[in-house]
Amino acid sequence: MTDDATYTLSADVFQFWAIDRVAKQIRLVLQDGRKFEEPIDDNDPILNSEIAMSLFDWEKWWVTSITKRGHVIFAEGYSPNTENPLGRLPAVYLDQNHWSTVALAMVDPGKVKSETELAAAYELVRLGSDAGIVLPLSSGHMLETGGLVGDKRYDLAVAMASLSGGWQLRHPVNVWRQEAAQVLADVIRVPRPEKALRVICLDPNAALSSGKRPEDFDPDSAELFLLMLTCSSVLVDLLLDPERTERGDLSKWLAHQRKVTAELAAITGPKEAKRKMALRRFWEGDLQAFHNGYADLRADRPFPELTDQQLAKHLTTMPMVGYLSGLFTQRYVSATTVWKRNDLLDMMFLSCAAGYADFVAAEAHTGTQLAQLQRARGGPQTVFTTLHDLVEALLASGAQTATERDEH
Q: Rounded CA gap, 68 and 49, in Å?
């Protein structure tokens, strides 16, 4: 900056930080009123963005992103010193089709054909806009939004970014790894990893499968602060990017699922025996995910071999993988199952959400099966296939906006 003084990263010193991509400047405003500016180089990749300005408010600990079209998006900033930023707010995960309904309710409500779904969408907007619920985003949302272009993508992206407020669902691959480490520690009778990462959180890059994480830095480091400062803008940019995102090739995955389903369909015998075999196929087909978690234990012994009884016992205790293994088992034992390329995305992210969110609005096929699994386990139903049913359950649980809580 234009001043050689060294400052501690503290709200006692700073009031605002701003990245102005239009003017190509970084601006600082100190608490004493002094202002500093520094130019951004023309070749700096930070300028390749659909966000015109990013502003960090030290007092509120908010990151504000202003798009090139003038939409203002607020996000809570991550802090390593906050014990539980979620507090008592219910976390509500929406599948992409339900996010589309909410976005239409905000920009073009006449296109929502169902009046009950429109009313439910309005209620979610009301609760989400006034600290009544948390609506986390996942990389699955970003991938599906990436298939859109033009105003349809922009409107959906702004709605999702605005209502999510920086909250993320940790990437299912990393959640799976964490759960595997926990359950395999129990199997071999060693201590579980000391610290479990929150799944619904504000952690920078939590939604992504890779990248720098808060745990990679000292809690008081400037690097962690800058990661927090830029992460919200990165996520918004991923949603707003006008270029269509091409999906990966899932032909091998689909071929494997169809092969397993056909093998089980050809076997005669009790259904329970087929279910055990299906669970074994799930374990064997995704063994690397369990090996990754086991590696985190740093145990000086071979990877354990689990019996059918142990698989049934331990997999069902895993919040996400319990649902995921249940979905695969259901589909493997059904001869009528038709595997589709979007199944992997739906099953992974909705299983993760069902394991950790308070309420989930899912697509019909996977949502129906997850609700069946919940009923079979005798627990409360938290997964629904319509916004109307989700909102009814949400309001029955006592969800209120911050304004309503203050009034009481």
A: 9
Closest CA to 162 of 260, 230, 248, 73: 73
Q: Residue 201 — φ and ψ, nearest 5°?
A: -160, 180
What angle do the packed helices 387-396 and 115-129 form, to 10 degrees? 50
Residues constituting the chain = 408
Record the tokens describing residue 42, joined without a space: 């023309």
| Placement of tokens 């390749």 in the chain | 48
DSSP category for residue 39: E
Burial of 27 (0-12, 13-18, 19+ CB in 10 A): middle
Nearest to 139 by CA among 98, 86, 93, 90: 93
pLDDT band for position 348 (cuts 50, 70, 90):
very high
What percentage of the chain exceeds 70 in pLDDT?
97
Nearest alpha carbon to residue 366 among 381, 387, 356, 351 = 351
Task: Say what the pTM is.
Answer: 0.93
Of the candidates 199, 194, 179, 170, the one whose C-alpha atom is nearest the C-alpha of residue 324 is 179
Q: What angle in degrees, to the nearest 10, is found between the helix axes of 308-315 and 319-333? A: 130
- Closest listed residue to residue 107, CA positions, set 152, 166, 137: 152
Q: Which helix (H) or strand (E) holds 204?
A: none
Q: Is 33 left (phi over 0), alpha (psi -120 to 50) or beta?
A: left
pLDDT tens figures, 71-90: 999 999 998 888 888 888 99
**HSE-CB of 272 using CA atoms within 13 angstroms:** 3
- Amino acid letter, 264: L
**Does residue 8 register a pLDDT over 70?**
no
With bands split at pLDDT 50, 70 and 90, how would you rate the model's confidence at 234? confident
Q: Alpha-carbon distance 390 to 136, whole Å?
A: 16
User: Which residues, other chains included, contact 202 with Cβ-Cβ below 8 Å and sequence gap of 6+?
Assistant: 76, 77, 78, 79, 85, 166, 167, 168
pLDDT digits (tens, 9 = 90+) for 133-160: 999 999 999 999 999 999 999 999 999 9
CA distances from 366 to 74, 326, 363 (A): 32, 11, 6
Residue pair 241/146 in contact (Cβ under 8 Å)? The answer is: yes
Structure tokens that stand for 343 in this block: 């199944």
